[in-house]
Amino acid sequence: MFDTFLGLPVHILVIHAVVVLGPLAGLTAVAYALRPGWRLVLRWPLAALAAMAAASSWVAVLSGEELQLRVFAAGAVSPEQNALIQAHTANGSYARWACLTLLAATLVAALWAIPPGRSRAPVLDWTAALALVGVGLWTVVQVVLAGHSGSEAVWLLTV
């Protein structure tokens, strides 16, 4: 199901969504947490971005597993290439969990803990904002690491 689409690996097609949506959702989460005046405008776009980033990261991991099976079945993977592929696999898995955690943190923060225009308790506001900033930045870092390690693996495979 997640192997190919029109002859191209699905992984190659969907990773572009993760690379754009993951950091965009993470940075939007940081803005939502740190700029209370922007919360009314960012609430639903943040929820949508986080949901799309989480979904695309999940599909990227599933399609990456299919692509990995295809590459290893061809039998032309050197030990150095294998190490790069394994590093990318681990980074991609971390990126998926970061995106899923961002979705959960976004829903809790935007819909309950720090919704626009309302304040529950200052301690709850600051705790939720700090958590959202942390998860947002973690998502950006993990997606960048996954993208970079994937690019390294592809570059070595094609050179």
Shape: elongated
Question: Which sheet architecture does the biggest sheet show?
Answer: 2 strands, antiparallel
Sheet-strand content, in percent, reads under 5%
Q: What is the number of helical segments per DSSP (H or I, 4+ residues)?
A: 4
Derived structural class: mainly alpha
Q: Percent helix among the residues?
A: over 70%
Would you identify the regions where 5 or more consecutive residues have pLDDT less than 50?
none
Total separate domains: 1
Overall average pLDDT: 91
Topology readout:
Blueprint: E1 4-5, E2 8-9, H1 10-34, H2 39-74, H3 79-113, H4 122-158
Helix pairs in contact: 1-2, 1-3, 1-4, 2-3, 3-4
Would you kindly provide a written description of the structure presented here, covering whatever features stand out?
The structure is a single chain. This protein has 159 residues and is an all-alpha fold. The chain has four helices and two strands, in the order ββαααα. It has a two-stranded antiparallel sheet with strand order 1-2. β1 and β2 (8-9) form a beta hairpin. α3 packs antiparallel against α4 (122-158). It is elongated.
